[in-house]
Structure formats: C-alpha cells, structure tokens
Amino acid sequence: MELVITLVFGGVALAAALFFLFTQVLVPQRLSTVQNLIRQGKYPQAVKIAQKIVSKDMRNSEAHYLLGMAYLQLNKPELALVEFKTVNQLGIFTGVIKEIEFRKRIAELYMQFDQDEEALKEYILLIKAEPHEAEHYYMAGFLFEKHSKSDQAHKYYRKAIELNPTHVQAHLHLGMLLYRAKRENDARNELEVALRFAPDNFEAAYYIGKILKDSKDYNGALGYFEKSLKDPQLRLKSLIERGICFLQLDNLDRAIPEFERAIKLESPDNQNEILHARYFLAYCHEKERNFDAAIEQWETIYRIKQNFKDVAEKLSLYADLRSDDKIKDYLTCSKQDFAQICTALTQAQGFKVREATEIPDGMQIIAIESDSEQWRNVKKMPKIIQYYRISDNIDDSVLRPLSDALQRMQGNRVIVVTNTGFTRTAMNFAESRPFTLMAKDGLINLLNKANWKIK
Fold it and tell me: Domain locations in the chain?
C-alpha cells in the first residue's frame, strides 16, 4: 500500500515538475522563438510553433497574440481577429502584449470586417487609457458619423481638434458633417483649415466646391472641382459638378465635354452617378435643340432605370420627332426659320402679323384679324400670341405678365402655343381670362393646317 501511495505521489510530483518545466521554461523559450521568427519574416514557422503552444495552453494570451501577429503578416486578417478576440476575452496583457497597441490593432480589424460597434468600444477604452490622444477621439467620431449619430460625432471631432488643432481628418470630417447639416459657413471654415494643413486634401477641395456651387459662385467652385479631379475616387463626381457649374453659367460648349468625360468613367460601381451625367448631358443637347443626341441619352437611361427622374416623360414628349418632320422642324430649326414658321401658324389661325419679337425659348407676335368684307369696318383688336419650344410645362408665372400687357395695349386675347403643356396653376389662371392655351396636340394640328416649308 505504501508503495502505491509513493508511486501516486511520485507521479503527481513528476507531472507538476513537467508542467512547471513547460510553463516556466519551455513556453517562454518557444514564445521567444516565435517572436524571433516573426522579426525574421519566417511567418509560417512562427504560426506552427504558436499553434502548438496554444493547443497545450488555451489561456496563453501571449501565444494567441503572437499567432495573430503572424497571421496579419501572412495577410490573413480574419484569422488574426479570431486570435485577438481570444486575447481580449482573456484580458491578460503581459509580456509581449502592449495593451494600447493591441487595442489599436483589434479596432482596425473590427472596422475592416464591419464590426463597428466592437471597434467603437475599443476606441472608448483607448480614450480612457490615453485621454490626451486626439486620434482616438477622431476615430470614435468617425464611427459615430458612419452610423448617423451626428451629435456624438460632432463632439468627438471637436475634442480631437482641441487636442490637436492640425488634425486634418478631424477638420475635414467635421466640415463634411456641418455641410450636411446645412451650416455652410462653419463647414467652409473647417474645410479650409483642412486644406491649409494638407494642400493635397482633395476631399476638402471637393466640398468647398460644393458649398460655392450651392451659393451660386460657379466660377469659384470650378477651381476647387478642378483640384478634386486629381483624386481618382472623386474624379467622376468632380466632372459632373464642373459640368453643372458650366451649365448654370449657360456655357454649354464647356458643360457637354465635362459630362462626356464623366460618362467615359462608367463602371458597375458608379451607375447612379453615370445616370446623372447622362441626364445632364441630355439636358444640354435639348437646350441646343440637338434632340437626336438628347433622345439617345434618355433611351440609354430608360433601359437602365425606367423611373429615373422625368426621362419617361421626355421620351413621350419627343416621340413625334421620329415620325413627324413638321414638329421636328418646329423644334430644331434656326431662329430665322422659326420666325417664318410662327408667321405661318399665325396666318393659319386667321390673323395678320403686325409685330414679331424674339423671346427666350420662343417668339412673340402681335397680331390682328385678317381683312375680310364682313369685318372691314370693325375696329381690329390686337392679340398677343406667344410660341414656345421648351422642355418644361408652362406655369402661370409666364401668363401673368401677358395679362397686364394685354390690358396696356387694349387687346382682346392672349394665345400661348407650346410643344409641351401647361401646369394646373396655369390652366386655372387662364380659365377666367381671355386666354387660349394650345399644348402639344394643338400645336401639331396647327402645323398640319399651316402652309409653310423650310428651304
């Protein structure tokens, strides 16, 4: 019996000795070996040894950490994150593990795999550990902003700037946050600071351009968008914004090339931006009365997204261009020929042209009734006839001045003819007044009735 007891205690003692040898002597030596292998760039060998240590001691925080570091070097971030999570759960930060550096790394990995809530927890812990480090506040603000928590993001960006006034990204993101909150002046101040500290900060330049464009300083905006063009990520958006600026400046010759350059950047990842570029390009062609080119863009848009803006209505509006030469001539002819067409349309209504004046997007004619035996001795009352070739329905804002003009000339009727239509407010305004509104179908009937031909 004594022999059995002696053997049992002897076995226990041997096991304890071996455990001590493994944990206190062999493991530290092997951990040191893993560190050296990582320094030498021998990452697969480091992984093998670290895995063996972990398999015998699952609570060895340093082995998990070194295994994670080796995985990072082998470009296996998902495996590294598994090991770092284990380190976090063990909560033992000794030896080779420096807690601050560890939390920075695991936070970056959480963000890489869209685990933003976990990443935010790490940055909050980092703020507690290093309350004077601006970068931690910035990263926390970034994560709050990403999840639409603007108030918290604003607070953390401000704190980052307070600790480090030259923190470019904090100024940039605070500026972007303020821009989205429609605080343009405050936003521009932050963005200009970011650009001053980092002249190649193209994102700051882009948003300053947006602010200037929104305030109708199109020439000023163009310079900033020219700068942001240098960023491949902002190139497409910058081209579209430049095109819009030229469009607002009524410089179609420069707007069109910008939209065309944008369309050449088309890829599966930027379809929405490309649709907008095509839409604005079509608008330019429509303004130039190059309807074939405009229709080509609208048809391309319609194939991709049928409910995009008013593209379906545009295609319907100009459908007759493909089959009716008269409406096509009305819309696309020169100003000189358009004046001749308007004269013919006036005559087709039984009126005589007394005066013709060019107006934006059309022609105004002052007319009287044509001579006839029946009405020869009757005083002829003047009429105002306006012909439009435009892309939008006519609103009451166009009709109201005509009512006043008719009274001043003591006329008896206003006739408005358009290739589009009239808004509800325009029709309501005309209903109780001496107005005749002639939309697209009426125009087509009049064109077929009139006697005219473009040479």
Answer: 24-251, 329-449
Per CATH, the homologous superfamily of domain 24-251 is Tetratricopeptide repeat domain (1.25.40.10)
414-427: average pLDDT: 96
Please name every residue paired with 435 in a beta bridge, in sequence order, or none if there are none: 414
Residues in the chain: 455
Contact present, 434 and 414 (Cβ < 8 Å): yes
**Alpha helices (H) in 215-324, listed in sequence order:** 218-228, 235-248, 252-263, 271-287, 291-304, 311-317
Number of Cβ within a 10 Å radius of residue 400:
13
Strands 362-369 and 413-418: unpaired
In tens, the pLDDT along 22-56 reads 444 455 678 888 888 989 999 999 899 989 998 88
* Phi, psi (degrees; rounded to nearest 5) at 308: -75, 115
Cα 381–Cα 383–Cα 387 angle in degrees, nearest 5: 165
Long-range contacts from 141-144, C-beta under 8 angstroms, 24+ separation: 141/170, 141/173, 141/174, 142/169, 142/173, 143/111, 143/116, 143/119, 144/120
- pTM value is 0.79
CATH of domain 329-449: 3.40.1350.10
Q: Which of 79, 89, 94, 87 shows the shortest CA–CA distance to 44?
A: 79
